[in-house]
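FIELD: query
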Amino acid sequence: MRRFLSDPSQAHYRRAWLLLLLFTTVLLGIGIGLRDPWPADEPRFALNALEMLRTGQFWFPHRGGELYPDKPPVFMWASALSIWLTGSVRWGFLIPTTLAGIGTLLLTVDLCRRLYGRRIALMSGLALLSAFQFVLQAKTAQIDMMLTFCTTLATYGLLRHALLGPARRWWLVGWAAMGLGIITKGVGILPLTLLPAWLWLAYSRRARGRIAPITLRAALQGVAVMVACIAAWAVPMVVMATWGDDPSLAAYRDNILFKQTGQRYADSWTHLEPWYYYLVSVLPWAWMPLVLAFPWALPAWWRRLRRSDPRILLPLSSVILIVTFFSLSPGKRGVYMLPTLPLLVLALAPLLPGLVTRKRLQWLGFGLLALLGGLLLAAGILGAAGLPALTKVAERHAVSPWAWWIVIGAIAVGLLVILRPRRGLWALASWLVVFWVSWSTWGYALQDHARSPRDMMAQVRSITGADAWLAMPDFDEEFLLQSRQPSIQFGDRTPASAQFRRAFAWLQQDRSRWMFAMQRQAEDYDCIDPDQIHDLGIQNGDDWWLIPATAVDRCQGDANAAPLFVAPTTLPDHTGSAPRV
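FIELD: result
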């Protein structure tokens, strides 16, 4: 890479490379600082990071004053660092995933350059940027993009050794990246799905000499490096949890090491879906528009596989095994497929020059853009005209995107007219750039007030006063993150009914206290005086009530029904050094 960037004979391609890097940085980075963290996961990780900075407790993540054992702390560390550097949650929380997305693309492009040449490398970068899920997750502050960077770095290291080696240093880098991926999110071992095809090819007579063999010594060294990376976090954590004086840390240790890994995969308790969920409900949109090329890619792959081409077999077999691996688990989320995208691009890379010349593929791109643009244009016009069904949805979510949809729908129509079906893929790619830029600016401005409770929590403070204590039974992290006054919660795993009983007892101890609760939960308690309730309206699809302590005098409280946690991010910071939300 260093020689490529410094060689004068490479000036043309160096400029193209730098333009791709600049384009990627702008496309993925635009919108940073324009919105708050949005549910489902972003407020949780921002709250973890903010609590680390406020309390100085970096080894054991907390959420609302309570230990958070669901994920290892690496992503929270990265978020805390970016928030600290920028001095603001709003400016800092998206930076780790943006950088991870840029890094993932650079690794993919560089590996394609070494395998297939500079032209195909640049095309592979554009192919990855066209993938809908890739850009979406690079603009979403969830762990999965950082995990994907780790798995892509591991894949890069292993394939540098397998296909361009032997390269012992890159072999060890790959295993180190897997270790980092494991302490980012437990499934950092996904690059091991390269090994079955690798071992088969290494001992296949037809592929002999085209792939580096795996020796027992090299395997043991790799595993040792991976374990050392994991131990750098796990050993201090286990020592502090086992021999510390806080019994809750031992529960954290057991949860993070066992329940959140093997048990979560084999006996998941959330996001339960059938085995075909990814094939039917995720991959068609997550891999779009790359899936449009499959009618031509599949026979081309088959021809190359018959020749035992390791450059195709290794990434393609890894994609298949990863999809199978997650399909076998009862718990499924669409983001689990994100690590397959760089591998899919690696498998498609040598086919890209031929694919873009296919007239029917250009027509498919034209048709997809016509469908997307037509739907958005029609929905925007009907919504602006007051179609009752669309108006009802807009009122429910407090967003009226009609003008935005009309504009990007009209742009789609304009691109279709100008570029015609013979350049359908270019029309689709151009429109996707327009979509992501408008999503990250206009779209953020439209949605932020509805998806972030910043304004609602400011209203709560204006009603209660800045010093009034606030209880949040069955809390959502976005409200706790945006709270402007001392706030408490009653345990994430505590049943809602027990939380309300504990909240009633807490409110009855001091008549200056308040409770912030979902209407659909609070209205189950007839003991609450309805005349004293402040109806705050809709936020994130639910109605919310602000209830004073004087309204629950007739309610039956129980001070032992649930634990009580004070959220440190809601307490006054007298140092003046805490980052802004």
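FIELD: remark
The radius of gyration is 26 Å.
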